[in-house]
Amino acid sequence: MPSDSRSPDLAKYCQLWCLKPSISVFHLHNNRSHRELNVHMNGQRLKHNPYPVYLGVTLDRTLSHREHLSRSAAKLKSRNNLIAKLAGTSWGASTTTLRTSALALCYSVAEHCCPVWAGSSYTYLIDTQLWCGQFTTQQWSTHTMLPTLLSNSLVSICDCGQ
User: Fold this and answer.
1) Which residue from 131, 29, 121, 115 is spatially nearest to 66, judged by alpha carbons?
2) What is the 3-state secondary structure (H, E, C) of the chain?
3) pLDDT tens by residue, 17-73
4) Which of 21, 68, 113, 149 has the most CB atoms at less than 10 Å from its CB?
5) Phi/psi class of residue 127: alpha, beta or left (left: φ > 0; alpha: ψ in -120 to 50)?
6) Rounded (10°) CA dihedral 147, 150, 151, 157
7) Where are the domains of the chain?
8) 75, 111 Cβ separation under 8 angstroms
9) Is the pTM of this model over 0.70?
């Protein structure tokens, strides 16, 4: 049986579900870790992806989740900037509005797949952005609501992986 006999079925499946196939190689031998395979589907070479995403988690060769946490921290930074702009206005600076915005925008990103990456040494990337968000909301709010939120919910969420 030729190695590409299933290629038409796989190509139809990818086209049906609007998938963009790519290929990644994870190898423990450091000299071979950046090797790119030459794999074709329907006569076209598949693109090499060093950081594939599986179920919303960006994988890297060392499984340290550095790339995933860096991307999540970038998302949190942009969302913190939105909350800071909201906090700097007279019409959006109420405690309830800021708390709801922080919960909806920031904590959903921070909590995503936490049990997977909670043991990583790069969790400080997420922690830094969460503390920046807390400072922003405290600075403009008359009540301090996020320290309670952080001490109760986030600590219990991130302790689940240890």
Assistant:
1) 121
2) CCCCCCHHHHHHHHHHCCCCCEECCCCCCHHHCCCCCCCEECCEECEECCCCEECCEECCCCCCCHHHHHHHHHHHHHHHHHHHHHHCCCCCCCHHHHHHHHHHHHHHHHHCCHHHHCCCCCCHHHHHHHHHHHHHHHHHCCCCCHHHHHHHHHHHHHHHHC
3) 888 888 888 877 777 777 888 888 888 899 999 899 988 899 988 888 999 999 999
4) 68
5) alpha
6) 180
7) 7-50, 62-161
8) no
9) no
Both tokens of residue 17? Answer: 């579900």
Burial of 41 by CB count in 10 Å (0-12 exposed, 13-18 middle, 19+ buried)? middle
Return all residues near 159 (Cβ < 8 A) that are at least 6 apart: 118
Q: How many residues does the chain have?
A: 162
- Asked if 92 contacts 138 with a C-beta cutoff of 8 angstroms, the reply is no
Over residues 77-91, the pLDDT tens digits come to 998 888 888 777 776
The two tokens of residue 121 are 């040494």
Spatial CA neighbour of 46 closest among 19, 16, 28 = 19
Rg of the chain taking only CA atoms, in angstroms: 21
